[in-house]
Amino acid sequence: MPLHRLARPLLAAALLVATGTASHAAAQCGGDFQAFLDGVKQEAIAKGLSKRAAERTLKNAQIDRSVLARDRAQGVFKLDFLTFSKRVISQNRMDHGAKNMAKWKRVFDRAEKDYGVPAPVITAFWALETDYGGFQGDFNTVNALATLAHDCRRPHLFRPQLIAAIEMVQHGDLDPATMTGAWAGEIGQVQMLPEDIIKFGKDGDNDGHVNLKQSPADVIMTAAAFIQNLGFRRGEPWIQEVSVPSSLAWEETGLDRPKSGADWARLGVKPRSGKISNLPASLLLPQGRKGPAFLAYPNFQIYLEWNQSFIYTTTAAYFATRLGGAPVYTPGNPDPGLDDGQMKQLQTKLRDLGYDVGKIDGILGSGTRTAVQDVQKKLGMAADGWPTPELLGKL
């Protein structure tokens, strides 16, 4: 099933705040739904879109209560890296990915030539988002966007997407009656929002339209253009599995503590395959010092832009290396982690100690990892950022 995300709306929100329009958009929510739609139509027309396209898009729009239920209940991955990655990187997905890269090789070659993004990077997202187009979501896109734009939780995120959907209708790339996708309005085989489709959509099969639901060529070229815009650097690695010495200073690990590849090599870090690049790299230990270890290079940042979940991003980046020929990771023998209740208990204790762990939600996010690493160091434990029952007991 699709792995939905809101990374793109969050980026859109940042842009809205920067231009001072977020508060204006936020005021245009709630109340009578038809009056709300009339306001959206007038805004679209004021932006230069046709009255006909706006009316066609919105005339049958309605609130979808199931979208609101999904929005209220959405969660971030609570599975650990080994469990999640084993679940989603199946042999079937590996085989299907290899077949797709061979079948669409000319398109992938063109995408890499034009945008610098290699086939395995695109293919991993293609697999994880919709299983190569097999599960794209069955929510009516206009209803989903209208529902979330009308809802006063985050109208500044979704109202621009609804207007962008009108523009897609005007281009002939969206049928409001039949277009379906994810509950948050993402469309197509790599699950992109309307604003991003308009900005980065590419007609890979030269039929005059951008069809991310049915055209693999459009999917591949559009994904490449979008990933390039996220900051992907041509010809550079993104992640690499490594082995680490038991004597490593674990407090030096983590996304916010990069070193040059040469420095990591001097500390005894060794590649599982290939050579360590001398680019800046952070040492990631998704399940602590006894689990798999990866060097994350600058290109890893595009994964964090695509999806804010550390487990998803690390899995997607690792999956891309596998599609590119890297060996299966060495799982190691990680210390047991915490269950949901224990994680919430740990977060509460860390919060009481003055750490900013965000919401007490049982999720091992960046704030919790950073706090865990600091507390481990203060307690004289291996500061690898992996919370264990031993740590919880000491607190």
From TrEMBL:
Coiled-coil residue spans: none
Domain of life from the UniProt record: Bacteria
Pfam families the UniProt entry points to: PG_binding_1 (PF01471), SLT_2 (PF13406)
Keyword line: Signal
Signal peptide (from-to): 1-25
InterPro entries: Lysozyme-like_dom_sf, MltB-like, MltB_2, Peptidoglycan-bd-like, PGBD-like_sf, PGBDSf, SLT_2
Keyword Hydrolase assigned: no
Transglycosylase SLT domain span: 33-320
Name this polypeptide is given: Lytic murein transglycosylase
NCBIfam families with a match to the protein in the record: MltB_2
Organism field: Roseibium aestuarii
Residues annotated as domain Peptidoglycan binding-like: 342-395
